[in-house]
């Protein structure tokens, strides 16, 4: 993604409002970087370039520095896992597993059994999707466009979108989690994050012959040039953001229908606001970090 495209994405409604920044962002960035290097997930140079704590700062601007840092550590772990699959990085036996166990031990006690079941189910879905994605890349056969959105949503790590609950110290009532509005809110957040990531990595994906990029799948199946496919995906991002906003606006009626207390309504609203800001926080991180060299 060129700097011009990055700037264009920030003008799309829903991605146009800059995130608040944690007042201790510099410290959060350093804490996450030191943790990732100490755990063997990345080199010092890679961690310094990626600036994982930037996304955490924008996603949790009002949380304690420790909570924001924990979010950034999850992102560092996820990116290390992603890079090992994509680039064949050899982290050494058990590095990812040990880091995951540490993060789980720091996170799970903050939430209840309902959250833990959902998180582990989504994590297992991600692990299965990793295998499917790797098989697709090895075969050089891309998923059909009609199937791609669900396929890509699974690989973007939807379990990470469950982190606001323990990190904010709140719990989503099951009755709300089962509503179509909540499902749309969370799935749309995952989609926009995945698609903007594909826009950011399109140069790398093109050179590597990646078959699991939304841009390249659209170009192939719809007979578009790459610039046309980029524009098409940008349109899908804008449309999905609109669906996400509508779902969030429809949630208050569900609060009343489910008989939520005022405290529970406040808790759900905090989670929803964090999810609504997640795509912009992710975009800011993509632009400001050196992961895809967008500037």
Strand content: under 5%
CATH architecture type = Orthogonal Bundle
Largest sheet: number of strands, sense, barrel closure: none
Task: Classify the helix fraction into a percent range.
Answer: over 70%
The structural domain count equals 1
* Average pLDDT metric: 89
Spans of at least 5 consecutive residues with low confidence? none
CATH level-3 fold name: Farnesyl Diphosphate Synthase
- Radius of gyration over C-alpha positions, nearest whole angstrom: 18 Å
Number of beta strands: 0
Assembly form of the protein = single chain
CATH class: Mainly Alpha
Structural class: mainly alpha
The SSE string, one letter per element, is HHHHHHHHHHHHHHH
Instruction: Tell me the name of the CATH homologous superfamily.
Output: Farnesyl Diphosphate Synthase
The number of helical runs is 15
Distance between the termini: 9 Å
Organism: Longispora fulva
Protein name: Terpene synthase
InterPro entries: Isoprenoid_synthase_dom_sf, Terpene_cyclase-like_2
Keywords: Lyase
